[in-house]
Amino acid sequence: MELAADGRRAFCYTASHAFDPQKPTLVFVHGAGLDHSLFGLQSRYFGYHGRNVLALDLPGHGRSEGPPLPTIAAMADWVFGVLDAQGIASASIVGHSMGALVALEAANRRPERVARIACIGVAYPMKVSQAFLEAARKNEQAAFDMETIWGHAPQVPFGGNPNPGMWMYGDALARLARLAPGVLYNDLKACNDYVSDFAGVKCPVLFILGKRDVMTPPRAAATLIQKLSNAKVEMVELSGHSLMAEAPDDTLDVLIEFFSETRTDRPGR
Amino acid sequence: MAGPKYPDFDTLALHAGQSPDPATGSRAVPIYQTTSYVFRDTEHAASLFNMERAGHVYSRISNPTVAVLEERVAALEGGVGAIATASGQAALHLAVATLMGAGDHVVASGSLYGGSHNLLGYTLKRFGIETTFINPRDLDGWKNAIRPNTRLLFGETLGNPGLDVLDIPSVAQIAHAAKLPLLVDATFTTPYLMTPFGLGADLLYHSATKFLGGHGVAIGGVLVDSGRFDWEASGKFATLTAPYEGFHGMDFEEESGTRAFLLRARREGLRDFGACMAPMTAFQILQGIETLHVRMPRHIENTRAVVEFLSGNSMVEKVIYPELESHPDHALAKRLLPKGAGAVFSFEIKGGRAAGRRFIESLRVFSHLANVGDAKSLVIHPATTTHYRMSDADLAKSGITAGTVRLSIGLESSADLIEDLDRALNVAAKQAAAKA
Fold first, then answer.
1. Statement to judge: residues B94 and B233 lie in one domain
2. What is the pTM of this model?
3. Nearest to B54 among A163, A170, A175 (CB)
4. DSSP letter string over B3-24?
5. For residues B407 and B214, what is the distance between their CA atoms, to the nearest angstrom?
6. Interchain proximity B50–A37, CB inside 8 Å
7. Are B70 and A164 within 8 A, CB to CB?
8. Is residue B119 part of a domain?
9. Bridge partners of B106?
10. Does the pLDDT value for residue B154 go beyond 60?
């Protein structure tokens, strides 16, 4: 579905369903340099199981018009702009990596509008190495290689993809090749610079972490988890950073369980 | 700080797509000889059917053994994924049928395998898809043949049998300027000699029957997508960017972005046309791929020795091989195929059709048959076999004459191959002398 947010053309995937004001809404926010389709299986499931789904392409990503937003706070505000454009008062948010920071910041800024959040593959602080940042700033292939290799568990190039016939590295590289120059750097810098005390986050938070995550190792989420009063952690044994692709069923199962507890979710409007 | 490193080609050829079987620990790829897969419950079944979960439902659509082959070839080619098919021809058909329908048009190289020429020139025409064949070396020809209803540019990395080297960077540029994808048949080059996606091609396929298998025991094809072509931005591919009634109104590009082409090809093409690969075939082709990086250098080494021998033989009119300076694509081959210009080539024997027949019948090590890319050396006479349906004019466009002999050089001792060729050429020469 195409919509206007902040006066710019934006895209969100809705699992081929029209908005139903009687259903609760689940927003999906992707990670650095990625787009909505990383949540393909999970967002489709919820779209066919009783929820409005808005799997967003952040500005400058996928089908949404650029330029990209420079900070996590601006991205969180933009998400609220999308909800406003749809007349949605309250929603739950699933975020991956940078998208998880966006989900946390949204819950921090406007707790009354965020029912629950699920943070997939996240760390705080999300410090990015100088070499990675510099390569991304120069739009060098090395940055895409780091994103691709560190973005998956070490066994991915050898292991079977749960999605038959697909090659995860190739998919990541093809996606990055479609990005406008500077978008990956923008995203990495936004992650690197993000600071919060998360004092406003009151809603239930689910952490889904990959035990083999190289990009955001589970230990790097420990401080963040301790800061939150209502956090639950699910560790996925064989997955790296790209949990939705590497362990799609495990990721979906814990999301289903977490959001099935949301009987008190208010309808979208 | 050193950056991370991708596994090398040789390692991917042995490992990509497979971790030891979780059920048994089997190191070799197990042959999942099953048609179907038990669902956990009805909810799980519904989720698999509606693409909410990854997994296998029915082996016409996907199979765990076949999936290893698909992922491995995609890894070697640098694609987003692949679909294994019943043959190379099925892969070409699947690519075309996924992108277009009646009323659409293909621009194709005139130097194609005869089977591909038949499919495009005759069979698909009957279903309303037209093809314009052009000289692959004529870049203006590619450009000028594009019409508003064109949906694909198509050629072979090494044309059959004249070994025209497709100028992939230039043809891809022409295709992309017209918002069209370039599909290449990469059978003759294999990912070891060339990776077409790195040169600008968008889609490719292999007749896996040939060098990928290498053993001549299994027929199969593999269609690979680079994931780099933006179907939405092109605006010419409704099959990928408009809701599809045949799958709950799915817009494949919206659903999966980089994976849209393969998703539609699998969910429609394999589902409805059904030209899938059998698990045993996938297993057999995987055995070949595991040694591709060891076999190809030997194929090239032997080919160079045979080419050198034939080039100096008095019974040989000319040798057509891109590594020779006499070949019109010599400079292009040096640029695009630095590891070698393949192991299939042609030569013209003096004495025409009769000499050719005598030569072929006198060979002992080379096998006379309709295949290439085997570990065993092969020989064929295109004008009476692979290209026999083509008119003389079309033959000439493909660079074939009555005296053209095509060789596929295998892995035997090059000394034995040269001795075999030398003896057969002498027999042909004696016959030609007797006639004179």
1. yes
2. 0.95
3. A163
4. PP-PPPHHHHHHHTT----TTT
5. 15
6. no
7. yes
8. yes
9. B131, B152
10. yes
